[in-house]
């Protein structure tokens, strides 16, 4: 069994928009305006926000860029409860939105209702190809990640995602971070186990 350190990145609720949906919400030909770069190369938090409309309440949510092929909304369970969504979205890897619930999204110039795309993100480690090769990690392998401190815990079923577009980082949502009392930039320990086949939760 191996152990290796990894920085933590805490991901708050956010939206990825397709170009078509961006234009329906902000106007024809609209382009996102980067506010600040994210830890993953080429990705950024945009100046633009949208409003998620739930049965009970609404939430302002930042858009992350660049635009994607399909619109996707990533929420923590706390956000789901606050909005009053009728069902709890499944825990999914980014981009895996088949069979997920939809939601109404409001922008300054329009409103859309996506039929699917709301997920609770599967906790994962962005892993560059060179690091994966050096450590013996493979794409979609499941590992454990341990965090220390007054609320120390071990995260099970952490998904390894391998790409030469990634920077080495362990991504969790705000609920998971609050449970462990950790923040972006803290250091965790990856614990290697025999590779497991990813199963949808």
Automatic annotation (TrEMBL):
Q: Cofactors per UniProt?
A: Zn(2+)
Q: Which NCBIfam families match?
A: PRK15070.1 (NF011652)
UniProt-recorded Gene Ontology molecular function terms: acyltransferase activity, transferring groups other than amino-acyl groups; kinase activity; metal ion binding
PANTHER family the UniProt entry points to: PHOSPHATE PROPANOYLTRANSFERASE
Gene Ontology cellular component annotations, sorted alphabetically: bacterial microcompartment
Query: What InterPro entries does this protein map onto?
Result: PTAC (IPR008300)
Family membership: Belongs to the PduL family.
Provenance organism:
Dictyoglomus thermophilum (strain ATCC 35947 / DSM 3960 / H-6-12)
Location in or out of the cell: Bacterial microcompartment
What role is this protein assigned?
A: Involved in 1,2-propanediol (1,2-PD) degradation by catalyzing the conversion of propanoyl-CoA to propanoyl-phosphate.
GO biological-process terms attached to the record: 1,2-propanediol catabolic process
Q: What is its EC number?
A: 2.3.1.222
Which Pfam families does the annotation name? PTAC (PF06130)
Specify the pathway: Polyol metabolism; 1,2-propanediol degradation
| Catalytic function, reaction form | propanoyl-CoA + phosphate = propanoyl phosphate + CoA
Predominantly, its location class is other
- What is the designated name of this protein? Phosphate propanoyltransferase
